[in-house]
Amino acid sequence: MKPALVIGLTAAVLAGCASSGVTLEKDRAYRVEWLGARPLIDRSHLSLTLGADGRAYGNGGCNHWFAGYQLDGESLRFAQVGSTRKMCSPALMEQEQRFFELLGQIHRWDVSETGQLRLWPERGKPMRLWPED
Fold first, then answer.
1. How many domains would you assign to the chain?
2. CATH number of the domain that 117 lies in?
3. What is the pLDDT of residues 67-90, one digit of tens each?
4. Distance separating alpha carbons of residues 103 and 87, to the nearest angstrom
5. Is residue 118 part of a domain?
6. What is the C-alpha to C-alpha distance for residues 89 and 28, in angstroms, rounded to an integer?
7. How far apart are CA 119 and CA 128, in angstroms?
8. What is the pLDDT of residues 83-123, one digit of tens each?
9. Residue 125 belongs to some domain of the structure
10. Going by C-beta distance under 8 Å and a sequence separation of 6 or more, which residues neighbour residue 92?
11. Which domain holds residue 56?
């Protein structure tokens, strides 16, 4: 490959990366795929939406949940989670409780190379989410 072509392609790739400026979108629903090191139970549905009004909400797999949040650059923190009180199977209830606990530990966010939203706790592996269609 000619050196000028290599330099041109490299510059185009770097310019594309620099201009992508990925941001966390408010009022967009995200579907949870992993809670830390564990995938979700088959056919369970956990979601998260960060409202423009400073309130987060979604589905915890069994119950609807809500919490205040603070977003400042890459910093993200959730207030104590509240939820409805419907009962589901013990496995779903345990997963939902882990989800609520992990939300309370989140302190920053980023986006992976594949475009997946990652919410990072103080320690451990992130919660991983995809934008819903």
1. 1
2. 2.40.128.270
3. 999 999 999 999 999 999 999 999
4. 20
5. yes
6. 29
7. 7
8. 999 999 999 999 999 999 999 999 999 999 998 999 999 99
9. yes
10. 41, 44, 61, 62
11. 22-131
